[in-house]
Amino acid sequence: MKAEDIRPSHLSSYDPQYDPLVAPNPGHGAGYAPTYWVGTAGRPPDDDGPVCGDMEADVVIVGSGFTGLSTALFLAREHGIRAVVLEANQTAWGCTSRNGGQGQNASGRLYRSQWIERWGKDVALKLDAEIREGFDTFKKLVSEFPECEPQPGGHLYIAHRDRKMEFLRNETRVMRDVFGYDARVLSIDEVKRNYVDDADCRGAMHEPDGIGVHPLKLAFGYLRKARELGVKVHPASPVIGMETRNGMHYLKTPGGIVKARAVGFATGGYTSNQLHPQLRSKIMPILSNSLVTRPLTEEELDATNFKTTQVITDTRTLRFYYRKLPDNRVQIGSRSSITGADAPNPVHMAKLVEGLHHKFPALKGIQVDYSWWGWVDVSHDMMPRVTQPDPKESIFYAVGYGGNGVSFSAHAGRRMAQRIAGQTLKEFELPIYNSQLEYPNAFNMVRSEAFAPFRRMGQRFLYHWYHFNDEKN
């Protein structure tokens, strides 16, 4: 089934050049990107149609991806609050239908050793307990929706150069000795014999926690359950203006104004600078490319020794993430262009195909059945925030997962629901909860919104530097 086959009549065409740093909003009823997940998820569940006329709501959630739907689900299930979800396009249109489906015991871009460097051991241990609880939240939701085709077993972190093995040995020591995980260092032979014959591999770290999922089927499960509990989900209803008067929020959509007591933003990498002042210039959207091959033949499975279905990443800064899907296809993704305007340039997908062939020479020339790209929400300090930026306003946001949102978004939604419901928990003293997203910085010294217009110049330079460092021996 193709994306256009499941597009309701009120939806417009998919825009492959959409760019959150340029466009005022993600669109109005835009169709899905042509992802494998869209092509295999089946027809979307029923929703409540676009906003048609003014309405009131106790709580409005902006964005209907993993975070928005899980927030609405937990608000209804644990607090008896039936939220209204406003979606610019269609359910799970953004990050949730474009990722690699990798659920890991992580959030943000920092390793646990970096948590210790930044905050000290005591805070790092508390943060680890919270992220670990977050992965449990994700696992419980996955178990509720087995149609999402879960592939458990752990996470394989492959060293792509010999010099990266010392880094993995150190991270393994930290994981085991400080945080109590059964992480293990694997030799080249162990990886190639028991997991996969990745030509890049120089050894690996194996983490026990990791689950691959069909992300859109999981999101559709969230949607069905939330609506059963009384949540209203309105697609093709972008927020095109918002003001707050006397403690009430007025969200303008093309179909009418929605008045709400509280608002939660869950817009991920599709957060426009015009959405709300508290989010302006606080997220750096980064493009990621992904592809899915045709199903591998038995001969190709033997040649690649692709025995594992666990989620895999490598140690490049511009890392590859990949896995074997339940139907024996290979999914692989990595970073893409700098701007949305350049995203359709075939050179970016060609680099991803080249990466696939380099890792698995036996797959050179294999047919690619699906290819797409999407925006990742990276915070400027590399860690997420689930917070209430101004205690005087009932406005909240959960964003900034840095590519680890498949799993942590479930817990972020639960925590944002608790904050909206007025709960005060000791966990909210952690840095990802008790501070706002930060502005970009210069030389790790000064943070200011004034640096925002120059971020992509820096990104372009860093991509060249990262590629040079990643590929040298």
TrEMBL record:
Residues 1-22 are annotated as: Disordered. GO terms for molecular function: oxidoreductase activity. Coiled coil: none annotated. Its EC number is 1.-.-.-. Pfam families: DAO (PF01266). Keywords: Oxidoreductase. It comes from the Bacteria. Residues 58-419 form the FAD dependent oxidoreductase domain. This is FAD-binding oxidoreductase. It comes from Comamonas resistens.
